[in-house]
Amino acid sequence: MEDALIIEMLQQRNESAINELRQKYERLCVYIAGNVLSQHEDVEECVNSACYEIWNSIPPAEPHDLKSYLCRIVRNIAINRLEYNSAAKRDSRYTVSLDEISDCVPATPDESITLSDLADSISRFLRTQDEIQRKVFVRRYTYGDSVAEIAKRFSLNEKTVATYLFRTRKKLKVFLKKEGYDYE
């Protein structure tokens, strides 16, 4: 089923929209949450919470890209669950990728700029990057893949992946400063 039809069903409060959403994207959601969380029960709960949040947010939200919207919700719920589960124990491989990106993306943007604006700016930036660098960046910071997994997926050396990530983060920081996210 097309995403636009699922969004329309959600806006009409048709409960079968959640079933269609699950059928189309559950494996992706489990993959994203599983890269952040180690417990299967936490992953399932995260996916269920994401479906609930989608149900409650559409309407009024009208996402242009349902897949990206859902992925962002799943990732955020999983990160919140990880923080809750580990409190002071920051030992997950996903927290490493969050630490990496925190140097170039403001944790709390200026009150005049919404998180949606920040996400749009990052998307615009990524569209200016080479395809492989964009894909490496998204696999690391959206899907939570390790450097080794990314290297294997794209038949690259791990050092090459790390270099791509470093350079892309550096360029992103410069881009965001030009966009008005000078938070240092």
From TrEMBL:
Record-level Gene Ontology MF annotations: DNA binding; sigma factor activity
Entry keyword annotation includes Disulfide bond: no
Keyword check for Transcription regulation: yes
Pfam family, any one: Sigma70_r2
UniProt domain HTH luxR-type: residue ranges: 144-171
GO aspect biological process, one term: DNA-templated transcription initiation
Gene3D superfamilies for this protein: 1.10.1740.10, Winged helix-like DNA-binding domain superfamily/Winged helix DNA-binding domain
The entry's keywords: DNA-binding, Sigma factor, Transcription, Transcription regulation
Signal peptide: none
Similarity field: Belongs to the sigma-70 factor family. ECF subfamily.
Name under which the protein is recorded: RNA polymerase sigma-70 factor, ECF subfamily
Organism: Ruminococcus flavefaciens
Lineage start: Bacteria, Bacillati, Bacillota, Clostridia, Eubacteriales
